Amino acid sequence: SLDRQNRINAVKVIENPTEVDAYYLQRVGSTRLLQFIQWAQSHGSAVVADSDDAMWSIHPKNPAAKAWNSKDSHWKITDEAARLADVMTVTTEALASRYGKHGRVEILPNAVPRAVLNLPARVKPASAEITLGWAGFTDTHPDDLKVVGDSVKSLVEWGVYQAAVLGDAEGAARDWGLSPYAVESMPPVGLGPDYYTALTRFDVGLVPLQDSIFNRAKSYLKALEYSAMGVPAVVSDTPAHRELARTVPLRIARTPAEWRKHLTELADPTTRLQTGAEARAAVEQHHTIEGRAENWASAIERAVTRRRRLHE
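Given the sequence above, the corresponding structure tokens read:
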């Protein structure tokens, strides 16, 4: 039970702990959660630990870097949680190679709720002006947007394109070399249907990521979210994006020149709308949470089987 004032985000009491088959913990980074894993296992409960980012290589400019290198929480604790967990779940091969050295690891790529596909794919008709969009905050993506070079800037200044950001528009404008007034700042929305609907403001979704250990271990979630809403995506060359491109028609850019080339190709409305429709259909066929539910269930069952065997 949680404390009634909800001031402390911590478990106070677990009644009948021996009746709990498994706990699923995400991003274990604190000593308290590490102790909780040991406590749970001592009562015969399995623990599945999950990590979806390479916290050991987080960019020093990222505000979260301090939190993951502090006395109370540290990326080394995530390593230890992975060692103790009955099963570790991750989203990419790179994370599995770090956290799954013991072999008790399941790669469970990101997916979207099937309900997202019931939302309208677009809220505005195709027009002569093409909106290049990005959803995110530059604080947590230091230097990532700079990989496009001057491609976004030159296209916006050309006049046929405009830029819009759901998040940190000012930071994006700075990284793209544009005036803050040249990038539309979209109203903030919460996670859920409003977020996905907001993405349909974009004609083309951007996922720029610098080449780093952190980003090479990163999942393809943002590209998947664009695709789910029928928004064609141009993305940086990462292992996860290459994997997603096997089923979803992404355009992968390795240089500023390739960014400009792909963005220019998508100026054609027929190409853009067809690519978006194909992307959404691919998400519905291959990348829904409901379609992959058995994978999560199998990971938990594997953990429970191991813990029961050890606890006998």
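The chain has a mean pLDDT of 91. Try to locate this feature in the token string yourself.
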